[in-house]
């Protein structure tokens, strides 16, 4: 962290700020230029709130040199983390292929989709039981009953289950029934939920990027979970909000190399939510894999025309099967196992 | 709602979609052009999920004609709602002036600020007890103890209390101690919290706009609270996220006339969080009032240099006092009472 | 400018970078921490391209301390610039009120509007002769004939003329006929046009902010004009592009205090283009003035229903007159002359 | 185009609008619901300005059904356009691989890079002679001399030349020396330049997407060029501006399938400008190809540390060679020829 002072700062102003910083347990290194004085902070600045220094009237600005996260930071953990989801590895060369309907609608539906997805090569099953919907009048999901249907599909197919948790009240139930617990984009900065999930969830967490979250904010939310006790976090890019409205969101595939540079956590891509149109899923899934992602999350529905949620972005099982074949070739090209 | 079909749609495709729509309880009106067929839906479309129709392969797109919200809609409630916060009216000609520190730090601090704020003309006291922080290592607020300090300040000054609720577990405590319960920007689409707040909160709700929430999404979140049983919602614009990073966020003052056009709810402005710099507060507070807002929420701190949170955007009491004097003149010009 | 080196940088790497910097005519100040070495640059860094230093593999990042503009910089020119537009002063206490149709359509139209605008208190006349239109099939403006009509309206009313220049080929004609030459948002980074305008325009320039231009980029475009020889630049905020599409653009009124902090140039606001709806103009014009702008640019049309361009955002003369009366009261409150 | 009227519109209001529309040469189809009347427009609505209808006080809103472009529209030209650039085909199965330095710096530099690029598999040479720079104090390019150096490199290697045109004054020179004329992101809506380029350029045009241009605006700019007489347009995605600042821009790879759905024009990707960091180029180039792009534009520099412009995003020739090998495998997987 570097403190840049205003031009012609006087010594007593300088000393006041230095004292404040040293009270936080940091050492300082002063560099006086002709016009500007700069003070570098030496020590662990992770826990320093820059704005508490910036507020001093002698300070022009405070600049970060090192990143404000530690547990998620690649610098302190150079190897890729490989997360185990009920026996399915994610990270390194291991790809997660998570398929299934946006929302659980019935036992028959889920089991039919789960079998087709597995046959095509998926290694996890997704399905929403508790649904975050923009409108209070839209279908809100089947809740606990939906989770039970997913469990039945797991018994039938052996596929681990991925489902979204929206409220800490359901953590015990999710621990029991779900294998990879998703925190949705709209809850990425629901800090109380992050803390509870870190403290109490015994399963790995799939943390989606918020609609307008920077890379750093997203990593800081992973840090919340990790600092609260759960080190098993997988990140999921699902599109960010921009001025473009033809697509539901703008899928930011630069996230893949960036997250791999900054952290050791696996990153998977959800091309279904990003585009909101089924015909965008295939090219974006291929692109994601070519860019080196650790997995894909793809909405598959046996009857999108009757889906209660997000039908337009779902692939039919036969389209998913074709996609999986194409992905296999790309996986070879980028040294991943499918 | 209007359904636009793809060019040269056949009758059996058309009929399939019409049947689907009529099963939802709506009537249809068909309009066949030379190229394109259009079907208008007649009836209450609030509860229709456009994407469930859009998914049909014969459909080009589905367009909304009417807004998807009812309880918040100005069309069904032409008069301004006036919300009573422990005796202080907000809406119509009545302005809320909510002042106080970003976070509660000590009893002395809060009482000193509360007295100064009241003397300068504020009619409510704000203070964060539970703080949403981007970093898990930053000060997270004093919690329940912080609320008790606010209650003590209320006893001293008579100012109603505004504080942020981040988790449904604390609703009973907030009902008891807080007069206007804030839902923060990062929880604007924490739908489970919105439902609980609608069901169980006995006090009015201050709903902040999410960092990248459209007007419609924001209003839909108010609709969640209202549909769950709490009609007393005040909206608060606090800046949205854009490409510009010199300011913390971009304050969208067009929200004031837009919200008044679309809804009957009061809207207040928080210029402190939007800009992130104290010297932006004064001009933006004046602008907000000139544009017709129903209130202002302004961070005031007796010692910003030592503030544990957001010091750089806080006004000192004497600056707040000067601002209040200037606001009085503007209030006259726009026919509001201060 | 500060250069932050990667951890454990070796001396020969450090020296290579320092040599590079000193070859640019700058002095350096080295600060070695335990982990990180930081080098501050002393001298005029305006002309240093940070990316030319950042490219060195020993460098972690390069941070700007001072702003990269000089001529527009408030630091080197503390007083407000007051620009004279054919006798009408803009800046300081002097407000520009520029009214008129989006596009010049006929002599009768423009003269009628000009008279009404003047009667209501406008002190300049706007009108588009060359129109930037998104579609090649839309009305492209009357061109030179349109400028002649504006000149006729000036003869009739005495109001100086504001019109947009889109191509350097017309500079001589604009110098002759127009009093304040507008560079539109879409040409804000048409650098060849900026240079020509700086070199050859004998009249002041009104530089609109680009749809996604940061404050700094906008000021740099002003710097282009000033560095090319024309110091008379007025800035105009007209809304930026965000995720919100209910309004045409998001009007960024924080631009007013920010531009005044960073530069000495006047800033005016165009609420008509920002919102795209006539009923947003009145509240936003009042807000702009309350925030301390140096002028307003407002579309006024005697018959918006028949306007060839942007009718929905135009005020009728009687609405403009009412607005001017309200603005007079706000002007008093912020110590501006109307 | 569909006109939605306000609730309870009277017949004379309805008739006034219908008359206006029919005067534009369109037929109408009226659909009266219980509350709302809707009028569909039949005929060529490409040249209708929706806002001229929206302005009528009886009109609630005007919605587009068909796209406002014709010449670029896939609907009227179902096959992929294949553009010939001095013998190199772009589109269909044919990939453009455009490599070279950001800016031309010397003859030796360009020829060395051109040879290396060709040896690695590039089929066109890029190089900036006229440079759009944010700062007036930054290196502005070598101008005509730079173009001559590119011509010399073409003579040496046979690679066609791609370079950016910033001003219509240089069109004759570009026609003579350059094979694919680039219009940069900042000039994407410099409509006078687009018209001139359409009228007078005898070579194909590479049209970059503006930093905040929607797909439709971008296509409309292609339509400008095509409607002015030049049908040979290649589109180039180079990242859009968002809230994320860790990367220079956010690369929108959904543009690839979207542009292919909406238009028949080839689309190439520039991963160098999008990310601004050389290590993002490889994964994004692979992703682009996997998503089905028609070409790549990659900055290659023999000595990035000394590059006068954008060194940090340039690949060294050996890295480019490695990338080309990996691309060959991906090209096979997506049925493209490299």
Descriptive account of the structure:
The structure is a homotetramer of 338-residue chains. With 338 residues, chain A is α/β, with parallel strands linked by helices. Chain A folds into 2 domains: 62 residues, Phospho-2-dehydro-3-deoxyheptonate aldolase, domain 1 (Alpha-Beta Plaits, 2-Layer Sandwich), CATH 3.30.70.1140; 251 residues, Alpha-Beta Barrel (TIM Barrel), CATH 3.20.20.70. Chain A has 11 helices and 14 strands. In chain A, β2 and β3 form a beta hairpin. The longest helix of chain A is centred in the C-terminal third of the chain and has 17 residues. The mean pLDDT of chain A is 94. Chains in contact: A-B, A-C, A-D, B-C, B-D, C-D. Chains A and B meet through α2, α6 and α7 of A and α2, α6 and α7 of B.
CATH level-1 class of the largest domain in chain A? Alpha Beta
The helix-strand sequence of chain A is EHEEHEEEEHEHEHEHEHEHEHHEH
| Strand neighbour order, sheet with most strands of chain A | 13-12-11-10-9-8-7-14
Indicate the radius of gyration of chain A in whole angstroms: 23 Å
* Average pLDDT, all residues of chain A: 94
CATH architecture descriptor of the largest domain in chain A: Alpha-Beta Barrel
Biggest interface, chains and residues, is: A-B, 48 and 49 residues
Low-pLDDT stretches of chain A are none
Which features characterize this protein?
homotetramer, 338 residues, alpha/beta, Alpha-Beta Plaits, TIM Barrel, 2 domains, eight-stranded parallel β-sheet, four-stranded antiparallel β-sheet, 11 helices, 14 strands, 18% strand
């Amino acid at each position: 962290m570097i403190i840049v002072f205003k031009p012609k700062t006087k010594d007593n102003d300088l000393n006041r700020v230095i004292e404040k910083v040293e009270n936080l347990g940091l050492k300082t290194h002063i560099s006086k230029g002709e016009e500007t004085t700069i003070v570098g902070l030496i020590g662990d600045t992770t826990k320093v709130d820059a704005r508490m220094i910036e507020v001093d009237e002698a300070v022009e600005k405070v600049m970060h040199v090192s990143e404000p996260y530690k547990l998620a930071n690649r610098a302190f953990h150079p190897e890729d983390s490989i997360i185990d989801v009920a026996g399915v590895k994610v990270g390194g060369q291991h790809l997660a292929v998570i398929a299934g309907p946006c929302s659980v609608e019935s036992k028959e539906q889920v089991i039919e989709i789960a079998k087709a997805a597995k046959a095509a090569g998926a290694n996890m099953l997704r399905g929403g039981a508790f649904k975050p919907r923009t409108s209070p009048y839209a279908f809100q999901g089947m809740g606990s009953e939906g989770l039970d249907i997913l469990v039945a599909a797991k018994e039938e197919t052996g596929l681990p289950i991925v489902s979204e948790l929206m409220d800490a009240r359901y953590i015990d139930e999710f621990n029991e029934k779900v294998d990879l617990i998703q925190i949705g984009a709209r809850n990425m900065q629901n800090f109380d939920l992050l803390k509870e999930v870190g403290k109490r969830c015994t399963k790995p967490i799939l943390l989606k990027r918020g609609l307008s979250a920077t890379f750093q904010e997203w990593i800081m939310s992973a840090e919340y979970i990790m600092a609260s006790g759960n080190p098993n976090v997988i990140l999921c890019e699902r599109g960010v909000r921009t001025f473009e409205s033809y697509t539901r969101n703008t899928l930011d595939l630069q996230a893949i190399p960036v997250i791999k540079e900054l952290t050791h956590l696996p990153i998977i891509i959800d091309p279904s939510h990003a585009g909101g149109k089924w015909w965008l899923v295939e090219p974006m899934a291929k692109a994601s894999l070519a860019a080196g992602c650790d997995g894909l999350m793809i909405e598959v529905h046996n009857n999108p025309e009757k889906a209660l949620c997000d039908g337009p972005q779902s692939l039919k099982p036969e389209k998913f099967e074709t996609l999986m074949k194409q992905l296999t070739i790309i996986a070879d090209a980028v040294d991943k196992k499918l």
